[in-house]
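anyone seen this seq b4? input:
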Amino acid sequence: MPTLRTLLFLSLLGTCACAQKTTQPAASDDTTSTTLGPVTNTHDHPAEVAGLGPVTATAFGANLYTPPASVTAEQVMDSIRAAFPGKAIYLDLWAVWCMPCIGEFPASKRLHGQTSDLPVEFVYLCTSSRGTEARWKSIINGKELPGTHVFVDRLVHGEIMDRLRANSYPTYVVVKADGKRKYDVRRPSELSRQRMQQLIK
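predicted toks r here
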């Protein structure tokens, strides 16, 4: 029978981030979390991203890409930006073994629905490190998570992480329509439609 100390340890373990940093810094405007409303899923697909290989489209509004390892970090980022002119990009950097990453997907799905009329695209970059393409697809399909999904070679993903000043999973970055970046932004469960509007201004 597990002791109380063991149960407390297991409970805390699930709330930790998956790498060096364990918490997200609070935004300066408000430190309280926002409960998101009901899901609005229009099943509309994002624009296709050229240069990342063939696309697999799902019934729930997701486009999946598995670019070859020869594609560079710069090509991945440039291709994504070129596919969504005039729009901001909410980047989600994650891994299939990162439980806090996956735990944010329901909130991300709700936020996606609430902001569907805003000029912002949700893009999920998953590292191939310690994961498989089959596991990646299984998680996305299981969560029915809309948006643009890219399964990135671990070395390329690592370079993208460096460019985006990221050293842990999950990490969230906003790339504005003009190319300016906001680093280490709030995770989906801490965002509302109003806060997203402020982020992408």
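The chain has a mean pLDDT of 84. The longest strand covers residues 120-127. kinda curious what u guys think
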